[in-house]
Structures are given as C-alpha cells and as structure tokens.
Structure to design on (712 residues):
C-alpha cells in the first residue's frame, strides 16, 4: 500500500516535542504513514530525524523533513518561548498549516507553548471568544469530550455556550456521534445548581440550544463523566484541568494499588497472569494513547496537542485525528455555527435573572 | 464493658435518616455504644426504633430514644423542610447538641437539610464567613481532607483562607496529623496558576499562613489529591463537589470493569478468588464507610453529615467522629484561630495585584 497520491495529503509533526522525542514521535509518524497512508512533515533537527528514520523501513512512505535547530523546551515559558523562538519546530509545523501545505499540526511538546503558537499562527475563527481544549475522557463504554480542559481558567457563560457548540461539532464529525448529548458540569442535576457562572450558562443554553443545534440535556455531575451519561461535558478550563488530572491520578493510584496486590506473592502472580488479558482490556480503555491528543477548537485550522508522555501509538492517532479534523471541516462548521449564535443573540432580550 | 458513666457521654443520632434507615443506622448506634462506650440518643419514631433494637443485644448499652413522628425525606427541599418540619428527627438531634445534652449530632438523611438545620440550630462560630464541609478523601497511604466539598459554590479568597484554617485544625485533632500540609487546588503548581479566585487566595495564604499556624505548601493539582501529597486540599464547594463525585464515579466504573473481567469465565473466577483478600484491602481503602461522615466545620458544635448510603459501620464511625470533634475542641480551636485571622488583617495593607 503506497501512500503517495497526486496532491500529497500531509500532516505537520513537531518531531522534537514530547518526553519520548524523537524516538517514539518519529516512530508514530512512520506508523501513521504506513497504516493510514498519511504523509507527515517531520519538523526538527534533520540529522536527528534521519538517524531515527534509519531505524525503520520507510520504503514508499511520504515523510519529508523540514529542518530547524530551534526547539521549545518543556520548561520554557510558553508565551516568551513563542515570541523568541520564531523557528521552533512546533511553530514551523503550524506555519505549514497556515500556508496550506499541511492539513494539520501535531505536537507533544510544551502544551502551553503549542496552544499559544496555534493561536498566534492560525488565529482564532471569526466569532470565537476563546478557543478551548477538548479532552477525550474514556468512560464505561465510549468517549466523552470534556471542554474546556485547561485553556481558559476564567470563563463567561457566552464562552461556555461556544464550548458546547464546538464540542458538539467535534464529536459529530470525529467520533461520528449523531446529535451528541451535551451536559453542563455542576454540583447537582437541578437547574438551580451550580456556581453563578454555571447557573447563568444553564439559562443561556436552555434558551439557545435548539436554535444552535446543540443537544443540551442539562446539568451533569462529576460522576456522570465516567458514567458516560453524555458525549460532551462543558466546564471552564480550571475545572476541566482538575477533572483531567484528578482522573489520571486516581486511575494511576488505583491501578498501582491493584498491581501491587497482584504481585505480592507467587500465588497472586500466577492468578494475575490468568486475568491479565482481560485486565489489559480495562487498562487499554483508560489509555490516553488511544485518542492521540486534544484538539484546540476555535482556531482557523487543525492543531492537536498531544500528551507530553505520548508514545508512538498516541502520535499515530494524533496524526489521524489532525487529518480528520481538517477533512471533516470542523473549523468551518464551528465558524458557521457561531454565526447562528450571533443571529440568535440579535433579537433576544438580555438574559434574565431567575428569582430564587 | 459497660458504657455507663456518671455524666453520660452521648451523641445524638437521626435514626430515620439514610437510604438504609432504620436498620443499618440503628445497628451502627448499637455497635458504637458497644465498641466505644458511647451513649447514643436515637431520635425518631419510637416504635420503629424499638423494633430495630429488639433485634440486637443491647444489654448495658446507653441508647435512650427521643421520639418524634416528623422526618425530613431525601427529596424534601432542604431550606423549606427545615422551616416547616420543626420536629424532624435531625432537627431534634441538633437541638440536643445545642442544649448541651449531646456532644454532637449525626445524620445520613437529606444532606442539604442537615447542613441548613445545623447552621440554623447551632449557628456559625463568631468570625466564620461560611461554614464548610470537609470531606475525607482516601489516598495512596492516608486520608486527605477536601474542604469545601459542597456547602459553598461561590467563594471569596477570605472564605478559602478560613477553610484552610478549619481543615488544619480538624486534621490535627481528629486524624492526629501534626502540622498538616495544606495545598490550594489549582491547574498547576506555580503560584501564577489558577483562576482569579485561586490566584488571590494563594497571595492571601502566602501572606498569612505562618501567622495563622497554617502549613501552606502552595498549589496542588488534581492528581495530587489521590497522590497523598497534602493532608488538606482547599477549594470552593463547586469544585470540591465535582472532585468528590468524579472520584466516586471513577472508582465505581473502574472497579466495575475489573470485576466484570474477573467474573467473565470460570477460570477467571478461580483466579480472582485467589486475589480476593488482597483486592479487598484495596477496596476497603476506598470505602467511605471507614471515615463515617463529613463534618460541617465553622459551626458552634459538632455535626456530622453521613453519606446517604451509609451502612452500620459508617454510622458507627460517624458517631465516634462526632464525639471526637467535640472532645478535642475543634470548634473552640477554630474560633480562636479566626481571631488570629482578624488580628492579622488589622494592620495589613490591601492584597496587592500581581503583575503578569
């Protein structure tokens, strides 16, 4: 299966970004090229990339190198790094998208910098107040998008309404969920629950959801995220970040405790060996690598921010998602959806305060 | 071991509150009376309580009944119920505390109503802006108090500072943690991280912690809660509620998936049987029943709000904690600590805005 087509379909990859760069990152690109027939621009230090590519069979794969010496490090200050390191690998990757040479960009490097660089290079879509990170959260039986997952700590109800719209479009197009269910994260299901921000957002969504094509089902609680009650959970980036990191930490702690018990004696080890294939299925479901990375939604292009710990599989999936996000027209659909928000806002009276 | 002493040491229990009332609730009281020598006022319908007590050997136990026909139901609106059902079992239990007849009150009933009734009956301590719920979160190797866990959705930095103080006193006295470590929940460890509320609270705590005897170690992230990095995690009640419910939901989902794998075949069931004692240790660590209930801190007395699903063990432990909270002088220590906050506020300039 050769990947070459007349007009190359390529994704730009920051080959230097991530804890496991360059080895796993470049391996991920090789796998994406082979499995999905996607061309990948490998952006970074040419000799390093060449040395890695030499370890694999890349016959017939479309993996052009874009050389740069500059790299944004994990501990660089995001905004400063983006301003000073104008030729950093992640920035050049994004410029390939901006210039129409790549469908999307992927980086597992400094995520704050990747966010800032995506905004700076690709710009926000007209009408978008705040681009947001949509994180995929594994649930009992499907994926749930938590948006915002950390891009915006302080949010207005209007931002959260936009998150609901952007998340709906993403889940519809990338996860093929028809009319995805949107829940607003709160401390109770009743519409009177929430902090002031959530109470106001609930009113706004209740008023506008139908017009905007958002399948808003009301408030959801923390337990409903792993419970898989909705396809999209809307929250501000402060809460979303706590949700993400708490979940990662809790799963790690819990699995660590279980693993320790399973290896605490020879008999336990033998019993655990029998259960291993089944448990591996459980662990796999919790594996962020399955989902590849997190899209920054609301920008004019496709940028995927991968976990710093990404392995080859995560990068492979991120490359697939970057292409899919571009090809299914997520950005255009968001821009169109936002004009519906603007129209719906024109003739409406101010959001009213509900008496309590 | 008889429990009678000359001046009876009693806790007041809402015998009608909880999903498993009255059976498990009253059994919990019997166990507390026998194991800890605590007298327990059983507040509720006399004939129901008598019928339950008849199932157990209560010889020598101090379990007086306080009869009332009125009960606040789980689906009653908290504030309305507290106003209308003036003789409800949880309210009478709290009045026994207010009148000096009981050391503390415990209810596994409608938690919103128990909070409202505690505030209404026992009143807040002088200087307390907002009483808060301190929830015990099981971690890798110890307990962590998350405060506030749901009493206050919108908080000012001054409230969060008080939560830090109240939580410190509770962990010191009830969990015997010397100089407990306090972390402020944020989306990153750097002091520049957080929403505006958290950034302002960080500044306030940094300025005042030493004077107040709070061992403030800075910001913590979601993953640090199960990681056991600190003894107290301070957050507003909206975030705290999300943390609590997400954790419960995630643990349930994860253990459910693992359990399903372990029983998916006869061979798996046999292997699982070998691992059972070890895994039970893990599950036990996650068992809210070990901690009994959640104190409402900042009120003039000891009120423990138990989980709706409380079993006898949870109630037994809640009764123990209610007594301990009273006997170790948690409320008095909070009141004293708050005068230190007031003193520290007198000569201080306004909290300054940090340039970003």
């Amino acid at each position: 299966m050769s990947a070459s087509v007349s007009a190359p379909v390529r994704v730009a990859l920051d080959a230097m970004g991530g804890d496991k760069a360059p080895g796993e990152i470049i391996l991920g690109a090789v796998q994406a090229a082979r499995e999905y027939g996607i061309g990948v621009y490998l952006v970074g230090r040419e000799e390093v990339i060449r040395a890695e590519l030499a370890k694999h069979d890349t016959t017939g794969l479309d993996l052009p190198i874009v050389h740069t010496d500059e790299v944004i490090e994990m501990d660089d200050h995001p905004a400063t790094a983006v301003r000073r390191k104008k030729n950093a690998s992640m920035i050049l990757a994004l410029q390939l998208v901006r210039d129409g040479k790549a469908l999307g960009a992927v980086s597992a490097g400094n995520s704050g910098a990747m966010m800032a660089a995506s905004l700076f290079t690709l710009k926000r879509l007209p009408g978008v107040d705040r681009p947001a990170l949509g994180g995929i959260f594994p649930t009992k039986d499907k994926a749930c998008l938590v948006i915002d997952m950390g891009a915006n700590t302080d949010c207005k109800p209007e931002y959260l309404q936009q998150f609901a719209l952007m998340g709906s479009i993403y889940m519809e197009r990338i996860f093929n969920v028809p009319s995805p269910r949107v829940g607003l994260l709160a401390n109770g299901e009743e519409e009177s629950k929430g902090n002031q921000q959530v109470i106001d957002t609930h009113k706004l969504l209740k008023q506008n959801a139908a017009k905007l094509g958002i399948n808003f089902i009301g408030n959801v609680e923390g337990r409903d995220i792993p419970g898989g009650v909705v396809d999209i959970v809307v929250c501000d980036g402060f809460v979303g970040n706590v949700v993400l990191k708490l979940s990662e930490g809790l799963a790690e702690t819990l699995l660590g405790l279980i693993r320790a018990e399973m290896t605490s004696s020879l008999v336990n080890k033998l019993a655990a060996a029998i259960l291993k294939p089944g448990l591996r299925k459980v662990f796999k479901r919790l594996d962020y690598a399955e989902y590849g990375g997190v899209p920054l939604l609301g920008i004019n292009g496709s940028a995927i921010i991968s976990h710093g710990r990404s392995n080859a599989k995560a990068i492979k999936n991120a490359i697939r998602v970057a292409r899919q996000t571009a090809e299914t027209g997520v950005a255009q659909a968001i821009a169109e959806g936002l004009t519906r928000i603007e129209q719906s806002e024109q003739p409406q009276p101010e959001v009213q305060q509900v008496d309590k």
